[in-house]
Amino acid sequence: MAEDHPDVRVCTFGYPASKFKKWIKKELDIFELAKLATEILCGKGVCKRPIIFVTHSLGGIITKLLLNHCHGSSDEQAAALAARTLRVMFLATPHSAPPLPQVVKKELPGWSSSHITALSGETTVLEYIRDTYGKYVASNENLKNVAYYESQKLSGVVQVVPMNCANPGISGTDPIPIEADHINICKPQSKESAIYTSVNRHIEQAKKLAADTPELSDHDTQIAAEGYSEKADYDRRDLWEKMNAADRENRYTYANSRQNSFARKYMSLGLQPGTRSDYDLLLSEVEQRFQAQVYFPLVCKGATEEEIDNAVQEKVIEPLANKKIGATTFGATNIQSAIYFLTEQCHIRWDTER
């Protein structure tokens, strides 16, 4: 999807369960997760441009809570996030309580959790979220909701979110069936898959609406200027620690040389806002491509060093090399240097241990 929409900034929100347990020793409830997501998105400047949410399962509930929380908020950034949301796409999100927990506990015990319990017919939390979200939807004339549900049973046992539960109860939003189970509905096999084609169509529609509605964007702020001159607040390890943790210590000398070269050039551009903006755009695109094409699908899943290196070359370096970004054309070495600079600045990493 990121390749089909190079003009769109793609962000992901989620957490690996194994790391999450180490962090907090218990599950955050969905209301806490929504508040956390709000802070992260606002901190990343997502509220400054038109927004499209593509959500799966519980992620759709968290997104509704997030937007409910932001709507009417006294926090200007949070309020802007709600106001600039143009599409919310729900992939197998239960908007009303499915008869799920009893089946899951019996047939798929590994799925049982406090989140599953919250979806049971014994609670009214989903109805409350649905009703509150409906009020937000009514206030945002630019917002369109799209809902999908799985038509196949998970592990041949249970249809986790059937059609009636996938209905968000919003006028004009009828759930669309997708020939997949609850897990694979968000994993299209190709760009020809029904879910990919549909989501892509709605993204195109939202982009056109955004282009025709300039007041949706904050033109006083350079969205690409992520503050790359400052280290990110998370994972404050330096370049050596990150390379060593990823068993790439043999590359440290070269990586450090490249990132230092890039840093000197980047920092010297403070009085040249046009060129500095081009570098910010480059760094933003490198970060997005690395996260979407390398880190989450490969590093997080234990891919080999060769697989990761090939992906960096094919998915990050080659698509950007000799491509004009703004008024500047960057070579392959510039792209590689930018990757190591972002590693040093704590925006990307090569391991999953933190």
Automatic annotation (TrEMBL):
Q: Which InterPro entries does the record associate with it? A: AB_hydrolase_fold (IPR029058), ABC-3C_CTD9 (IPR046911), SERAC1 (IPR052374)
> Pfam families annotated for this entry?
CTD9
Coiled coil regions in record:
none
Any Gene Ontology CC annotation: membrane
What does the UniProt entry say about where the protein is found? Answer: Endoplasmic reticulum; Membrane
| Superkingdom, natural source | Bacteria
Its keywords, alphabetically, are:
Endoplasmic reticulum, Membrane
Q: Decide whether keyword Metal-binding is in the record.
A: no
Q: Where is the ABC-three component systems C-terminal domain positioned along the sequence?
A: 238-350
Q: What is this protein called?
A: ABC-three component systems C-terminal domain-containing protein
Q: Tell me the lineage of the source organism.
A: Bacteria, Pseudomonadati, Pseudomonadota, Alphaproteobacteria, Rhodobacterales
